[in-house]
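Retro notes (design track)

What went well: tokenization of the new backbones is finally stable.
What didn't: we kept losing track of which sequence belonged to which structure.
Fix going forward: every design gets posted as structure first, then sequence, in one message. First example under the new rule, 352 residues:
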């Protein structure tokens, strides 16, 4: 060998980059130690005279890469270099490694061959996966914070509405009760008949205040939910819907209160959306429990086209409510084919 050839051979031997040489038929005629080690062989001779493509090139599922479309062989035919990314080589034990590769034509005594170098990109892929998972976690955290903020804002709106309803309704009735009672007290000895009429008015005002408080309490937490459970409460809710609603399903036992309340409110809001936006002629609710997960599906035959972020739809609020419980909402609403909104809520064990 000439000194230059010895020097080149030493470079190839010591290079950390896996390199091999193919003859004009695509057979391996040289492999440096880095290539031998990367592919899990014991010595270069284990690879010599093997067809490089058939020996190592694989599809991601491990099946053979069709030789007819193998880009690694084209430099032998075209005389032009080639490069590939995110492909797969099979090691001797059958395991796969992701690689980037480079091939260039090379003149051999027997004709045109090619020299191929490749890089195991497993570590790079792992690092990219870490970055993707970190970014996904950051997005989930941001979404969760946004959902919590919307819940807080929605709760503030509800509190203000309840305060207004109490002020304008029950409070005014109770004030009337107080005034009537005071007037009746003043008239007891002076004008008994007027005192009796005032007391009758007091009773009416008191009954009105009670009715108003019951109405407010029903809007926050219907008594039938407390006493009858989720299915019974949803059946009762369906009787007051603006479109015919069928309710199907059953639960083997009562669920934790927080799950029942939020599932009930999910159905209530979904049916309200149906009445406001869907132009539906009928709807259905299906309730079930499977593997400690409650599923509640509300379906209508309306115009479809609902989107969770659409203004005024209420769907974002539904998703936020479920997210706060560790659940999720699934929305299917193809245009012209109705809307299905499904809640999936994990059910913690009922504490004793």
């Amino acid at each position: 060998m000439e000194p230059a050839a010895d020097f080149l051979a030493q470079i190839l031997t010591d290079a950390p980059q896996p390199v091999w040489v193919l003859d004009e038929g695509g057979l391996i005629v040289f492999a440096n130690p880095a290539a031998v080690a990367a592919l899990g062989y014991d010595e270069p001779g284990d690879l010599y005279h093997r067809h490089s493509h058939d020996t190592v090139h694989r599809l991601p599922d491990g099946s053979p890469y069709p030789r007819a479309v193998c880009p690694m062989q084209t430099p032998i035919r075209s005389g032009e270099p080639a490069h590939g990314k995110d492909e797969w080589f099979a090691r001797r034990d059958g395991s796969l490694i992701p690689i980037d590769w480079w091939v260039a034509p090379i003149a051999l005594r027997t004709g045109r061959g090619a020299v191929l170098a490749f890089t195991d990109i497993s570590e790079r892929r792992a690092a990219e996966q870490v970055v993707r998972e970190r970014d996904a976690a950051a997005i989930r955290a941001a979404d969760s914070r946004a959902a919590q903020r919307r819940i807080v804002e929605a709760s503030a709106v509800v509190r203000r509405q309840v305060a207004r309803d109490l002020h304008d309704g029950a409070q005014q009735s109770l004030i009337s009760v107080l005034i009537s009672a005071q007037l009746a007290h003043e008239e007891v000895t002076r004008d008994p008949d007027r005192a009796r009429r005032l007391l009758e008015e007091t009773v009416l005002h008191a009954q009105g205040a009670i009715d108003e408080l019951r109405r407010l309490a029903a809007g926050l937490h219907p008594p039938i939910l407390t006493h009858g459970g989720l299915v019974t409460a949803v059946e009762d809710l369906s009787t007051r819907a603006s479109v015919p609603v069928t309710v199907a399903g059953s639960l083997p036992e009562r669920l934790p209160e927080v799950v029942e309340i939020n599932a009930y409110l999910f159905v209530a809001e979904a049916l309200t959306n149906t009445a406001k936006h869907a132009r539906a002629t009928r709807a259905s609710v299906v309730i079930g429990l499977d593997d400690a997960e409650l599923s509640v599906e509300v379906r209508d035959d309306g115009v479809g086209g609902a989107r969770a972020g659409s203004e005024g739809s209420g769907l974002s609020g539904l998703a936020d409510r479920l997210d706060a419980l560790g659940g999720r909402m699934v929305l299917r609403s193809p245009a012209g084919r109705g809307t299905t909104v499904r809640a999936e809520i994990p059910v913690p064990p009922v504490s004793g």
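Added context from the reviewer: DSSP finds ten helices and eleven strands in the chain.
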